[in-house]
Predict the structure.
Amino acid sequence: MSGFFQVPWSDYRPDLTAALGRTVSYTVVSFAGAVVLGLAVALLRLSRVWPARALAAVYTEVFKNVPLLAIIFLSYFGLASAGIRLDVFTAGCLSLVVFYAAYLSEIFRSAISGVHAGQTEAGEALGLGRAGIFGHVVLPQAVRLALAGTNTMLVDLLKSTSLLVTISAAELMSEGRLITSATFRALEVYLVISAVYFVLCYPLSQLLLLLERKVRAGVPLSPWRRRRIRAARALLAAEPAAGPGAGTDRKEAAV
Amino acid sequence: MTEPATTTAGTRTTSPSPADAVVRIRGLRKAFDGRTVLDDVNLEVARGSIVSVIGQSGGGKTTLMRCVNLLESPDAGTVEVAGEVVHQDGRRVCRDLPRLRRTVGMVFQRFNLFPHLTAVENVVLAQRTAGVPEQEALERAVTLLRRVGVAHRALAQPEQLSGGEQQRVAIARALALRPEVLLFDEPTSSLDPEATREVLSVMRELAADGMTMLLVTHELPFAREVSDHVVFVDRGRIVEAGSPRDVLDNPAQARTREFLAAYGSAS
Ligand SMILES: Nc1ncnc2c1ncn2[C@@H]1O[C@H](COP(=O)(O)OP(=O)(O)O)[C@@H](O)[C@H]1O
Ligand SMILES: [Mg+2]
């Protein structure tokens, strides 16, 4: 087996590290953009104004039914030929954003409409206001519903960054191609590159599964919720004003 | 004998002046898709009094409750809450809807607790958005949970709670903003007898504390026990209104008698 690894990997370590960093950058930037755009499209699709709904529907259907590679070529080569020159990073991220936003918008839309109508009503009855209801009642529950699908998309997006090899984006796959053309060791190189993707994706998806489980179990993840629950626990541990006579005080304070 | 139907529920009380009505509804009409579900409804809930609405399913009881905090917009008539006209002739007059809804607490048949928050957070949330400082809101939430007897479950998620516990948390949540009136829409209809007893006992305590309540219920013995007024609604109209003794024990209207017979109200 010692004969199998003939590529001088230690020489390539700095380049590979840089390529790995670029893959991660593409993933993080594109995913953040896709979540924002996907949420906007989902909200448009749930809008009461029909042109907004139609626009969002057209967007979703178009980008769900065109291959990602075609979108990458369009945004890098296509736009350039029309005089709009995007650098590789911008074109790459743009492609991933518009493509994944279409899928995410579907996930977000069904999650938002999956929140029971009684929840909005309870929020209204408590005088929360539109923004309060969306931010405190609908969105947190929609996030729970959307989490599994969204996580799948994140891992999928990470793997799809490899398609950017076609515009020489200098990420992992491109680096693999460079090493191959220098060493002519395609099997070895692409096995190693695949292993790097695996080492990146597997722990990520496991971590996201763990997150899903925690969120489903209602574990407070945000620091302000934790602080509130800690404070509540302290109050609960303290004796209630005490004594039967204090009962009336409490009631007075309560009404 | 259609007279009692249009008489406001408050007119038979001995003490409170009409000015002291927390809820006053006059000539209310509401239709869904052209089908009238409430017609010429008049109702008053005097401060500190308890008004129970009874009647068959589909009669418009829920819609009537939802017209008080304007979850539904009436098509005609006047809705007055805490001395302020909030809806008139099919137009919303009240500009600050959230403020109106903080004046009116509501408890739903299906609890509608926020499932992503613990019990105590459910009681805190609306207080915070209403501007109550964090510590004060928490203290009040804990006090209220103690009062309804679920403080030991304060850090549980709603799905971990029994139906009776959930509804008691929902009552605490509705009380958190110190509403002037509480609306209960069949609060025990999705509960087993044991949980029903728990919730009714909490409501009994609220009644004893002088809370103003408007309540839809099928628990006729409970309605008889706590109500100052009972209103029988049938097919969108108030058929009969008066003291529990009058409406439940000596109903003047044939429709009321039929309803009571069907619900087998003993005694
Ligand atoms: N949002 C709505 N849209 C259309 N019809 C409705 C709506 N809400 C209630 N209704 C109808 O109005 C009538 C009264 O309903 P409701 O007020 O829920 O009665 P109750 O609470 O007495 O059972 C029913 O026929 C019901 O189907
Ligand atoms: Mg109902």
Q: What stands out?
A: Confidence is low (pLDDT under 50) at residues 1-17 of chain B. Chain B has ten helices and eleven strands.
